[in-house]
Hints:
Layout: H1 4-15, E1 18-21, H2 31-42, E2 48-51, H3 53-56, H4 61-73, E3 77-84, H5 88-100, E4 105-108, H6 114-126, E5 130-136, H7 142-146, E6 149-152, E7 154-157, H8 158-168, E8 173-176, H9 181-191, E9 196-200, H10 209-215, E10 219-222, H11 224-227, H12 232-244
Parallel strand pairs: 1-2, 1-10, 2-3, 3-4, 4-5, 5-8, 8-9, 9-10
Antiparallel strand pairs: 6-7
Helix pairs in contact: 2-4, 5-6, 9-10
The chain binds xanthosine-5'-monophosphate.
Amino acid sequence: xxxxxTRLSQISKKNGKIILANDYDSSExxxxxxxxxxxxxxxxxxxxIKLNFHLLLPLSFKEISKINKTAHNYGLQTxxxxxxxxxxxxxxxxxxHLWNLGFDAVIANxxxxxxxxxxxxxxSHKENKGVITLCHMSAPEAKLSxxxxxxxxxxxxxxxxxxxxxxxxxxxxxxxGATFPxxxxxxxxxxxxxxxxxxxxxxxxxxxAKNVLSAGTDYLIVGRTIINDKNPVxxxxxxxxxxxxx
Length: 246
Ligand code: XMP
């Protein structure tokens, strides 16, 4: 079986580089039906779908499995955005549940430490699953933590250390917010093709798809800009076109 990185790359060659962040708030009644509808109408413009706690907390095992199965039937990869950050044993139990639910990859927080991260990558790759780690988040206040100067041998910023750890531990990709194109460019230059760059923060949070794609982003993670629009198909189509012109 192909790796997560390859599976995502294969579908993106055909469908473009948009990953739908299928985030609904608690006022949305039929989360499963709505999500499955999104997959069925938007799949030609997507390479993947990302589920966050918006769905992971309220939905049952059966409902989440059904969403993942539907996504797979339409050729899409699925990512659990839980920013996993715990001790080795807890990470192991958590990912076992996620893989049983049918997810292809997990987003993890590298603050857990390099050894735990290596363990997580090793056990996930054994199951042909992917690991994506945070490098620099999209919210404006992320600067306060991810840009912090640290001294680990040499002086550097926290996101630079997280980038080094991502390369060393052979994760599949990193998250760098679309609101920080200069950091995307830095990571792209340093990691080259070793890591895919995933950028949330397009549209609603102020990031520009065109700017981040030219800075080196591989995949755009887009939520409210698509799902809250009156015409999600046309927004998705437009973003897909931009992602093809990279
Ligand atoms: P919107 O609606 O702003 O949704 O397009 C973005 C989605 O991505 C998540 N998000 C992040 N996830 N690192 C992540 O791993 C980040 O820096 C980051 N910023 C936003 C957000 O929770 C939502 O699901």
